[in-house]
Each structure stands twice: as C-alpha cells, then as structure tokens.
Specification:
Strand order of the largest sheet: 3-2-1-9
Oligomer: single chain
Largest sheet: 4 strands, parallel
Shape: globular
CATH superfamily: Aldolase class I
CATH topology: TIM Barrel
Distance between the termini: 26 Å
Number of domains: 1
Number of helices: 10
Length: 213
C-alpha cells in the first residue's frame, strides 16, 4: 500500500480500526491468510518477528501484495526494527517500551506502536513519540481500563491488544481505543492449518461488522 510517512500510515490504521496479528510459517501461507482477511474487509496486517523467517516472509508479501498495509510486530531492539523497515515494514509494533526502537522508527519516518500497560509507561511512550500506544495485555484489565486512561490522557491514542475478540471489540472502541490489535481470536490456528480460507474470510467480515456497529 502506497502510504508515506508516519502521519499517513497512522491515519490509515485509525480509520481501519483493526490490526490483524499473524504468525505464519511461510510467505505462501501468509499470502493465503492475508487474501482471506482482505476479502473479509481487513487490510492492516502485523507480521510478528516470532515467525520463522519473518523478514524474508515480510519482504516477499510486500512485493506481491500492494493493497495491504504491512507492519512488523514483536520487535525488541532497534537493530531488528531497522531490518524490518528495510524489508518493507510500514509500521513497527513492540510488546514493551524501548525508547531506542522508537528513535530508530523515527529515523525512517515509520510510525511505531510500542507496548505499555501502566499510566507511567503509556505517558512515557507517548512523550517519546509513539504514534499510538499498544496497551498490552489488554485482557487483564478490559475495556474499563481504556475508558479510565482516556480521562487523564484524552490526547493519547490507544491500541488495546491481547484478549480482544468478537464479543468485546465494540466495547474497547466505545471506551476510547483508536484501534485494536487482534491475534488468535481472528487469525485462528485451526483455520490456517485446515486451509479454511472461506471461514477465515467470514470471521474477518464478522469482526468488520462488529466494528461498524
């Protein structure tokens, strides 16, 4: 997807409202998953660095799929962030707060969504230049935590991740989340292993409908 710079990419993520988090074993499998998600209305994808050969997979799918926004997730250090960006990542997601990773993303004008949980961490991430702050793990505190955070931090864009599903995605967004990160409840392992692409497409469509409603 031909979006340039932090502002454009961040705006697109906020508009889409959902980042699908994928762990795939090959570029072919990832392309099958992404095709199904896109057909269901989801076009913002995070490829985690815990995936074997993640950089090569990211590079391959970026060359073959130009109508999807791809980011790299579970990025732990600035060196990995740089490699992800050079492999085509259009945004960076981290599980925890590392100011050096934020600095590296800024160097390449790529938006970063660092992980944080406490009010102190969340504010620190924002002050250091996070485009959006990933509240992780969101399942432990639920939508009410997002609502409470937006009281003192109305300006901070939040992306709850971890435990977001069809039943609570609407509540997280109503509570003030700018977007959500969704992994296993959307990109289900059984559907991928069974190559049940039509079922995955239908599930993506249901998530999109939950967002719209």
């Amino acid at each position: 997807m031909a979006l340039k710079g932090r502002a454009q990419v961040t705006e697109y993520i906020e508009r889409e409202k959902i980042i699908a988090i994928i762990r795939a074993q090959s570029s072919q499998a990832l392309m099958e998953v992404v095709t199904a998600l896109k057909a269901g209305g989801i076009s913002c994808i995070e490829v985690t660095m815990t995936t074997p050969g993640a950089l090569q997979i990211l590079e391959a799918v970026r060359k073959n799929m130009d109508d999807v926004l791809f980011g790299a997730g579970t990025v732990l250090d600035p060196e990995t962030a740089r490699l992800c960006i050079l492999s085509g990542a259009q945004f960076i997601v981290t599980p925890s707060l590392n100011e050096r990773v934020i600095e590296m993303a800024h160097r390449y004008d790529v938006p970063i969504i660092p992980g944080a949980l406490t009010p102190t961490e969340i504010l620190r991430a924002w002050e250091n230049g996070a485009a959006i702050v990933k509240v992780f793990p969101a399942s432990s505190l639920g939508p009410s935590y997002i609502r409470e955070l937006k009281g003192p931090f109305p300006q901070i864009k939040l992306c709850p991740t971890g435990g977001v599903n069809l039943e609570n995605i609407g509540e997280f967004l109503k509570a003030g989340a700018s977007c959500v990160g969704v992994g296993g409840s959307l990109v289900r392992k059984d559907l991928i292993e069974g190559k049940k692409w039509h079922e995955l497409q239908d599930l993506a469509r249901r998530f999109r409908e939950a967002i719209a409603s």
